[in-house]
Design goal:
This protein has 108 residues and is α+β, with helices and mostly antiparallel strands. The chain has a single domain, classed as Double Stranded RNA Binding Domain (2-Layer Sandwich), CATH 3.30.160.250. The protein is elongated and about 45 Å long. It has a 3-stranded antiparallel β-sheet, covered by helices on one side.
Length: 108
């Protein structure tokens, strides 16, 4: 599987509201199938954006280290990981891996 396919895998999303202080609530989101991939914010959209950033960075890091990210289901055909990475303001390194015709990081 190449990086584009790995970044198109749909992961289960867990969401919960947590009270951090009396009367102060935050949204906690996680992809439990990806170790340590969690985010927390006062606004759900901010938490989701941070969670997506962490998901992409974690998958790229695992692949660069020669490790296979969890693949619990098939990649989504309609996914556009390049758009998502650019929208999140991720590093040029990540966008470069996805933007080239042939992904320099591949896994079989």
């Amino acid at each position: 599987m190449d990086l584009r396919e790995l970044l198109s895998i749909p992961y289960l999303l867990e969401a919960e509201a947590v009270e951090t202080e009396p009367g102060q609530w935050r949204v906690r989101l996680a992809y439990p199938e990806l170790p340590g991939c969690t985010a927390q914010a006062a606004v759900v959209e901010d938490a989701l954006q941070e969670l997506e950033r962490r998901r992409i960075e974690l998958i790229v890091k695992l692949v660069e280290e020669g490790k296979q990210p969890p693949v619990p289901r098939k990649p989504l055909a309609a996914s556009d990981p390049l758009w998502t990475a650019q929208d999140l303001g991720l590093s040029d390194r990540v966008a470069a891996h996805l933007g080239s015709g042939a992904d320099p990081i591949t896994r079989n």
